[in-house]
Amino acid sequence: MKTLKDLLNIAIEQEVGAQKLYARGAEIADNEKTRQFLRRLEKEEIEHEKMLFNIRETGIYDLTLPIGDESVFEVAKNSHGGNSLEPNKNWKIKDIWEIALQREYLAQQRYLKAAAASKDEELVTLFNNLARDEENHHRVVEQQFKMQTGQMKEEF
Fold this sequence. Notes:
156 residues, mainly alpha, Ferritin, 5 helices
């Protein structure tokens, strides 16, 4: 049976993948506002990685705790774009937006499932907070995507 440590390892890998996606988007963005927005998301994903890394490394939680719901791991593996951590060099900014929307939604699902599978109340709170962060990311990425594709006028 897979454990909390297994889940944290996958989640950390996926957060690193999200960082790389946003960094690639910032490289190819055609305006400064978009570059700044993507860099901000990259920094937030770095903070998620640090938080998960600290949970794994500090020994506060029993990392051998079994995670009985195997679907958590499938969502975790796919939440930030599958197993590949490297963005495709041929992607255009529209591809970045579309992949980011999928990744943020699936990341939210990963953390909600992790919260539901956790027995420790602090972990439940932590995973629910991460799910809320990913939900917020999805919302702002969707707004940016709509502005970039002309589906929504800039509001800020």
